[in-house]
């Protein structure tokens, strides 16, 4: 009598049948994963559409009906604007400074290491640029930096809080994502106009195209995304330091890719801009500002001793965060920070704030979250005391075009003694 069950079991266990079974399992798994990913995408778009509808209901339809919104071509907003690095020596300088900073960073406390909100960004997005810089691969570094506005190395420094690569940089931009980008952009431009009381023209928002920027158009003029925000705070800083005599010094903690530094340097002829940041962000700032200002004297970490005379000898100084304690007392006419303090650990904030206050001669100006924070909220940074008084605290409404529940405020403190 034939034992069918046993024979079938042996047949299924044979290499041929095992391979076929594995292929079917893999095919089924891939099919299910594709379905799961598609369902997640549908859910994500549904939630995004619902949020955008509630946003436009809250703010009204003026932006959607405006000429600036209707006349924008989304493909033009995201078209390739890549331009070459103006001098190959820039890449060499950036890599040398970065590697020296990384080597020395290890000997400093946890307050000067990557942490809190930036740790997952580094783990998920910074691998390629860290590898390129760390191995002194000039070609790879150049390729990344010439496209940095669309590369992972600038995640968290600009753009909407969504997957920009999938939603925009792929070239397949849905009508919903087009509306979200343009609504946010035109809102920010309108907010800039209101805050500056029409004192400036569109030409004042122009920035060099290094990094392959995306943005939007007003009256057929391309505006790099975020330029209005950067220009406003640079112009506000210029107003605050205008009465100071002689060469002016502005210190920024966390300069992004160098946008604020660009506008400040362009606006003020006799100024030293000093930026402190994590080595990876420091390197990106160095690339943008070196490319934008070939005629300026720019000091990178490791190229010369950083001391109290440096601000007299250089127009721009870009240092890793662990060089902060070298700042001389009362050297800065103004200290500025945009968002990153609220993204740091309590230990890091309590390390940075006393150092920055000691260096600050007049104004301590920052924009940060008051509710959403990974550690201390902006009200609790510990800036106000018997030496610094809070002069103004007001909502920073830049992100209302994307989130009516935004919690950002700008704080201006002035030294009183």
Automatic annotation (TrEMBL):
Keywords: Methyltransferase, Transferase
Keyword Transferase on entry: yes
Highest taxon of source: Bacteria
GO BP of this protein: methylation
Example of a GO MF term: methyltransferase activity
Keyword Transferase: yes
Protein name stated in the entry: Putative sugar O-methyltransferase
């Amino acid at each position: 009598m034939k034992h069918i069950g046993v024979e079938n079991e042996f047949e299924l266990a044979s290499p041929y049948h095992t391979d076929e079974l594995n292929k079917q399992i893999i095919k089924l798994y891939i099919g299910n994963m594709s379905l799961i990913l598609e369902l997640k995408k549908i859910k994500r778009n549904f939630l995004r559409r619902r949020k955008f509808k509630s946003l436009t209901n809250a703010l009204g339809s003026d932006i959607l009906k405006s000429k600036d919104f209707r006349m924008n071509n989304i493909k033009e907003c995201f078209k390739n604007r890549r331009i070459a690095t103006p001098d190959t020596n820039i890449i060499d300088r950036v890599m040398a400074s970065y590697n020296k900073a990384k080597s020395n960073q290890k000997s400093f406390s946890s307050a000067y290491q990557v942490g809190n909100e930036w740790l997952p960004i580094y783990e998920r997005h910074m691998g390629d640029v860290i590898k390129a810089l760390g191995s002194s691969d000039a070609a790879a570094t150049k390729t990344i930096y010439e496209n940095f506005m669309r590369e992972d190395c600038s995640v968290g420094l600009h753009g909407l809080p969504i997957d920009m690569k999938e939603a925009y940089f792929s070239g397949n931009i849905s009508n919903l994502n087009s509306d979200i980008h343009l609504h946010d952009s035109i809102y920010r431009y309108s907010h800039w106009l209101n805050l500056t009381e029409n004192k400036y023209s569109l030409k004042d928002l122009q920035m060099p195209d290094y990094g392959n920027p995306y943005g939007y158009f007003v009256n057929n003029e391309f505006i790099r995304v975020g330029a209005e925000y950067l220009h406003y705070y640079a112009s506000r800083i210029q107003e605050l330091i205008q009465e100071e005599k002689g060469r002016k010094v502005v210190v920024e903690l966390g300069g992004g890719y160098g946008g604020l530094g660009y506008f400040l340097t362009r606006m003020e002829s006799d100024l030293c801009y000093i930026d402190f940041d994590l080595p990876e962000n420091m390197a990106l700032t160095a690339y943008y500002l070196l490319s934008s200002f070939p005629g300026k004297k720019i000091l990178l970490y490791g190229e010369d001793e950083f001391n109290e005379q440096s601000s007299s000898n250089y127009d721009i100084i870009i240092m890793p965060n662990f060089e902060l304690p070298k700042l001389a007392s009362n050297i800065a006419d103004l200290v500025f920070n945009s968002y990153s303090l609220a993204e740091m650990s309590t230990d890091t904030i309590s390390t940075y704030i006393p150092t920055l206050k000691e260096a600050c001669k007049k104004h301590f100006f920052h924009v940060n979250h008051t509710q959403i924070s990974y550690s201390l909220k902006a009200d609790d940074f510990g800036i106000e005391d018997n030496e610094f008084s809070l002069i103004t605290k007001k909502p920073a409404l830049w992100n209302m075009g994307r989130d009516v529940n935004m919690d950002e405020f700008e704080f201006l403190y002035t030294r009183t003694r």
